[in-house]
Amino acid sequence: MGDNVIEFKGRKGYRDRIVNAKWAYTTRRIPKDASWCLTDRNVTPRAGDLVLAKVRRIGQHKRLELPDGRRAHLFPGDEVVVAYGNRYAPDQFEAIVPDCLGICHLVAAGGVASQMIFKHEAVKNPTDLSPVGLLTNNEGKVVNLQDFALTATQLIKNRPPVIAVVGSSMNSGKTTTAANLIRGLVRAGLTVNAGKVTGTGAGGDTWFYRDAGARRVMDFLDAGYPSTYLLSPVQVKQNFMTLLGHLAGTDPDIIVIEIADGLHQAETEKLVASKTFAHHVDGVIFAAADSLGGIYGVDRLRSWDVNILAVSGIVTRSPLGMRELQDAIDLPVLGSKVLRSPTVEVYMREWLSRFNIPRTHERVIR
Q: What is the C-alpha separation between 142 and 134, in angstroms, rounded?
């Protein structure tokens, strides 16, 4: 056993604590029953490191999402296994990985430990965590999500069409737009794979895609990241390509992906404005919270030479908002009812033709 491993009351003592803790959704690729140990000596947490922590005080997040999607109630004194990570959420917290194992915060219900920097006025202070130690293997190597990540893979030739959903901001309706699009395509008889490329580790969006009928669903946790905030542009693109490669590998008719947050979020902007994105994404549906956001978003995406297929999102809940938007842009404005209808395939035919997508993609139209 490594020199830095904690000794509680024999090896069985700390292993029982690890196994009996509540394991978060962010740990879903990690085998819970492996022979994990702990260390708290001479360590600096990194994004993706797993930590056993004790709940000190309940704040904003009163429940912890487990790997199976169940939200377990938290109580002071509970021990949890979560992943260190950064978070960018204008409606909740901005947080970064701390530089020591001191008291920190649960900043996402999916299980992200971090140090809060700012919070939205409408949310409570975060739930406090007291780290016990980082999980290690028997040799004392700290366990990181990257150790269990998907391997990088090349996109198959003649890949299926890829539609991305991006938005004006957090909570602009991106996930609902993506899920309803998936539902409509599935009802039209197509096989759909789906992925969430950026964001913070939590299962709500991916469960939504599954419920809508996506055959295979993946997110950035599968690529080894608890969140994508503060990743380098190279890492974001590698994550994007890894997920696309695996989603295309099972030969679906079409792939639908979601890009988190708004166009001005740094990682989102660098990815969507990149040549990599333009080359591998055939079209974008933009989710807007209001008409002004929709108009600006369309202009911004066009400045990056992105193929925009339609606008959707929260704005479509308002007939007046839709009218304002439709009067200002030359694109379809599609509400959830249209997206989840099999008639969405009619739009697919027009989109494929309009943007001259290679004939190898035309298998999507039956």
A: 6
